[in-house]
Amino acid sequence: MTRDDLPRIPLLINGEFVQSRTTEWRDVINPATQQRLARVPMATPEEVEAAIAAAREAFKTWRKTPIGQRARIFLKYQQLIRDNIKSLAATLTAEQGKTLADAEGDVFRGLEVVEHAAGIGLLQMGERAHNVAGGVDTYTLLQPLGVCAGITPFNFPAMIPLWMFPMAIACGNTFVLKPSEQDPMVTMRLVELALEAGIPKGVLNVVHGGEPVVNALCDHADIKAVSFVGSTRVGTLVHDRATRAGKRVQCMMGAKNHAIVLPDAHKDQTLNALAGAAFGAAGQRCMAVSVAVLVGAARDWLPDLVEKARGLSVGAGDSATTDVGPLISCAARDRVEALIARGVEEGATLALDGRLPPLSGQLKEGNFVGPTIFSGVKPGMTIYDQEIFGPVLCVAEAATLDEAIALINANPNGNGTALFTQSGAAARRFEDEIDVGQVGINVPIPVPVPMFSFTGSRASKLGDLGPYGRQVVLFYTQTKTVTARWFDDASTGGVNTTISLK
Ligand code: NAD
């Protein structure tokens, strides 16, 4: 198939899927085989402008649409996603690489947010205090902001778009989504289903592209809020740019997630959890465990951990026997391999080397790195200081729980962390003293379910409110506080020149 024969991914503007008029396209590639799947446009400035204008126009009526009517769209949407989950997962695996079971999990964790959006009637309620002064009542309205924008990363192309547009739209906003240009196909299928569920024209729009499109969204006066998920470098740029333009901004960014293992932990469960959380999705999860801190006698568990990791099968995500799929791109593989070489140069011990896993046929072309484990890792080494975003687990050691907590608190990132133990007292001390926004107790990847919010912290996040859950309702709405007095007779207390309400 020549490039010209490949499917061209459309934009969505004002309810119509339209072909971009751009001259700049990039290929969407199956990372297990390098097979080209589709072409994605880098939208022109006029197309970005048209998407924003459609969203601005649609807001005029969507903001007045009754809350029950908005909620029912998401009731239908969740059913459509559920009915299509297998084919959504297959598309996701083809363009992103993760295993089919994990791709289904990616869709499912987004589906949970859609289910929650269907409960918007309860979530968007204001507060009311009766008779705060004589005959005076005070109450709040949570009103939609206007046009909101979402910029999403490659690693969860179903879940993360679904963190954003369903809740923004359920709150009465309209939306412009900019998916990752590396794997936009499953996102577009989810957008098609959203229209099928009844999202009116102009309420959801999609533009594709890279830096120029993102900058245009950050700068545009008609966009009131920007949600971003991606790397710390880009998130910081987006935050600074969009904040300067006067918008609300929330950026969920990079990570270095540590798991502490105490010697009283259940050994087999702990090692299974560590291997799954370090190497699942080829380590390309913002909540992947990338550092294991073995405390005291748990230091002796390293050989068993290495054996667990060695037993994982590397291959294409659409094979039922695969545990670890490819990295997203050749550039990502080269970067991870270079970091592994750097780890060796800087004195860490390469306990398991996953470079050049033995694969045959077309998979030889894929971006594969197998499970890799370094021991003796310390702050100051590049493999510790940087987010590797690959199937590489750094193992560090600590004499006590307090020493391990101090190590984590000294790391700038604050996305996720976990403790493995059977001691309630240790767990309680850990949850109290650890300075990380999402804490797992014997749970390696503690991503909260949608009745809570995603609560990464410190260098992993910019902006105050997290995605989904109650926090995002506050992010996507303006709280308006009304103080009202209704006179029930003609009596007057005269002119009041003080600040007091009487
Ligand atoms: P990325 O930052 O490269 O890309 C994210 C988005 O920004 C994409 O839509 C991309 O097109 C756009 N972009 C890229 N370069 C840009 C630039 N110079 N200016 C403006 N926009 C630009 O991230 P990625 O590689 O797609 O995703 C992986 C990263 O995302 C990892 O660091 C991971 O930890 C992070 N992540 C964080 C969370 C979280 O919740 N904290 C969740 C998922 C992923």
Automatic annotation (TrEMBL):
Keywords: NAD, Oxidoreductase. CDD domains: ALDH_F6_MMSDH. SUPFAM superfamilies: ALDH-like (SSF53720). Residues 18-482 form the Aldehyde dehydrogenase domain. One of its GO terms (biological process) is L-valine catabolic process. Its EC number is 1.2.1.27. Coiled coil: none annotated. GO terms for molecular function: methylmalonate-semialdehyde dehydrogenase (acylating, NAD) activity. It is an enzyme of class 1 (oxidoreductase). PANTHER family: MALONATE-SEMIALDEHYDE DEHYDROGENASE, METHYLMALONATE-SEMIALDEHYDE DEHYDROGENASE [ACYLATING], MITOCHONDRIAL. Belongs to the aldehyde dehydrogenase family. This is methylmalonate-semialdehyde dehydrogenase (CoA acylating). It comes from Roseateles aquatilis. The gene is mmsA.
